[in-house]
Amino acid sequence: MGPSSDSRSTSPIQRVEADLEHKTVASMLNTPIEVNLTTGELSGDRIESAARTITDLKGLFRDDLARQALDPNTLVYRVQAFLPVPEGEEGGMFWGTTFLSPGLVGDEYFMTKGHHHLQRSRAEFYLTITGTGALILMDEKRRTTFEPMRPHTLHYIPGHTAHRVANTGDSVLAFLAAWPSDAGHDYGTIARVGFSARLRKVGGIPTLVEES
Ligand code: PAN
Ligand code: ZN
Question: Counting atoms of ligand 1 from 1, which one is nearest the CA of 52?
């Protein structure tokens, strides 16, 4: 071993610098979230999940006796979400998948609770991955309309528009969503006054029926 060997040519200071450089590089390596484009399933260690059973959805459907007749553990929907910044922070974006089961409560399709965004001006995109359903939209004048959802349909939900999804098919309806991190969710208004119409199966066909 001569004076040119590694241990002699690298001073302790240089070695510390090399270690720091290594750590910096390591901390810049984020593992990305993966989206399964066949099922909509998100995977990664920063994914949050929530589930809504038929029991959680008391008060949502028109026919509460029909709801009570179902197995209380029936899963109506689950949501996966990637929230890279704190909820409410301005300037960020959120990403999620909703998996909505097929089913009926009386003649009303399984559906999400539905909400306004707390910040009413905030818009959102939905992209259907699998299954069939309806995106139900209600504007500020309480006019309710719906858009059919089928694999690969893209839906723009403008600001100031309450939104909910119903599954009109016989398999799981999965859709991706992207919305601003400061949108927030106002469920209270819909819980109190509802949508002006419900999507019901009338003569075998999904039909928006105005509330009387
Ligand atoms: C969606 C919804 C999701 C579940 O991610 O939150 O489909 O529906 P509810 O929130 O009405 O229970 C969305 O619209 N986010 O803003
Ligand atoms: Zn929303």
Answer: 12
Compute the distance between CA of residue 14 and CA of residue 8 in angstroms, rounded to an integer.
Answer: 11
Taking the C-alpha atoms of residue 73 and residue 26, their distance in angstroms, rounded to an integer, is: 44
pLDDT tens track for 24-56: 556 677 889 999 999 999 999 999 999 999 999
β-pairing, 108-109 vs 144-149, is unpaired
Expressed in angstroms and rounded, the spacing between residue 179 Cα and the centre of ligand 2 is: 7
- Say which ligand is closest to the CA of 110: 1
Is 95's C-beta closer than 6 angstroms to any atom of ligand 1? no
Given a contact cutoff of 8 angstroms between Cβ atoms, the answer to whether 100 and 76 are in contact is: yes
Domains by residue range for the chain, with CATH: 34-210 (2.60.120.10)
Q: What is the mean pLDDT of residues 185-200?
A: 98
Residue nearest to atom 13 of ligand 1 (CA): 177
Specify burial of residue 120 (Cβ count, 10 A radius: 0-12, 13-18, 19+).
Answer: middle
Round the average pLDDT of the chain to a whole number and report it.
Answer: 92
Of 46, 37, 43, nearest to 83 (Cα)?
A: 46
